[in-house]
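Quick question: who can interpret this fold?

. . .
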Amino acid sequence: MKTIVRKVGNSLGILLSKEITGPLQIHESDEFEVSVAPDGRTILISPLTSPHAEWESWLNAHPQTPSEGLLLGEDEGLSSDSKEWVW
């Protein structure tokens, strides 16, 4: 992907298209570590947190209730589970 460095206030910025931000789940105000690779010509951009970092806190705040067991229930299964499979 080709992009242009643009003036942003007294700084310079690079716009990232949805082709990049979508699959990586990058959102406005996400924080990144920016550094220069040892070759001196490559810019490295790494997220400071995982895109799913907030999931753990949400799951802790919404514990699973007993009625939410497995999809088929804690003690249920398919009737075919009790039979031997023949290949």
